Amino acid sequence: MGHKVVVFDISVVRALWETRVKKHKAWQKKEAERIEKSSLERIKEEWNFVAECRRKGIPQAQYCKNGFIDTSVRILEKMERSSLIRQSSPSKERDKKSSAFVFEISGEHWKALPDSLKEQTHLKEWHVSNTLIQIIPTYIELFQAMRVLDLPKNQISHLPAEIGRLTNLKELNVRFNHLKSIPPELGDCENLEKLDCSGNLELTELPFELSNLKQVTFVDISANKFSSVPICVLRMSNLQWLDISNNSLNDLPQDIDRLEELQTFLLYKNKLTYLPYELLNLKKLTLLVVSGDHLVELPTALCDSSTPLKFVSLMDNPIDNTQCQDGDEMIESEQDRQHFDKEFMKAYIEDLKERESVPSYTTKVSFSLQL
Q1: Which of 42, 102, 264, 267 could staple 290 via S-S, CB 3.0–4.6 A?
Q2: The pLDDT value given to residue 243
Q3: What pTM value is reported for the model?
Q4: pLDDT at residue number 67
Q5: By C-alpha distance, which of 138, 140, 147, 151 is closest to 104?
Q6: CB of 169 closer than 8 Å to CB of 191
Q7: DSSP SS3 for 290
């Protein structure tokens, strides 16, 4: 019995498969078009893109323009490279702080600086925070290499006059302590660039000698009891950032336009009833934040969209302070509230800076802070 051989035409089989392949490709094309037009698929794509950007620490302002999300892979790669560059900076900062030239302590178990510190005059930075330390010793004058004196949230009641011997000092941060005055000798630190005395609650003036600080670009004296802008501040010709919010200002000086380099001016939570026309002479001023609860008039040109100024008027809700029998507890609560307030405003301003475009004038933004 022989084998059975099936004889068929190969062209018929090929035609059959070509037809099937053609139909399958047509179906694939139609399905791709359907998916492309599907809003759900678009939303899913945008959500995955946003999640990826957030995971890589890319700010929203970089990929969201006027409410639309750009899901370009090329943009993502570009932003990722930029993000990696930014992320490398904190690691460098950590390495810097771990170096032999930086002294750093923190915690309430510290009530005084260690005795061994006196021998380490080579140090360039002090970072002392959240301690119970009340006194900065006079031997600080021995630290001639000092660049950064960072002393936030301690119990310091005064600064020694010897601080004026630190002629290479660039940054002084004494925010949220218990200072009632600043030594005039600080004016001898002619290389100082940043001064932060915020949150001391009792500061009412700065010494005129600080007028010598011509290199200062940043001054924060918020959350104190200033009734006017200090004269020495008006003579800091390179000043770019001034925060004098949460004080008792009734008006601004007519010569406020002396601050020709000023870019950011924070005035919220004062007692201002008007803004002087001289503010318009500050050609580099881009952000002005002023409490709106007492304002009755302001220069109309301030809201002109043609100016680079972003004017934000905040109407603050009153905050009831809880009275405590223990005076120290009341002060601590007030400092905590002021600190929370500053963090809120800092986040608000950072959000404004991230936006591509922001309203030039916000009539009312109400918020309340409670601890």
Answers
A1: 267
A2: 96
A3: 0.66
A4: 56
A5: 151
A6: yes
A7: strand
- CA triplet 140, 146, 147: central angle to 5 degrees? 140
73-97 helix and 39-55 helix, angle to the nearest 10 degrees: 20
Residue 322 has pLDDT above 50, yes or no: no
Residue with tokens 């405590």: 324
266: left (phi over 0), alpha (psi -120 to 50) or beta: beta
Q: Is the pLDDT of residue 100 over 50?
A: yes
> DSSP characters for 73-108?
HHHHHHHHHHHHHHHHHHHHHHHHHTSTTEEEEEST
| Residues 233, 242: Cα–Cα separation, whole Å | 9
Beta strands in 231-360 (DSSP E): 241-243, 264-266, 287-291, 310-314
Q: Average pLDDT of the chain?
A: 78
Cα separations (Å) of 185 from 165, 181, 259?
A: 8, 12, 23
β-strand partners of 106:
129
How far apart CA 325 and CA 317 sit, in angstroms, is 25
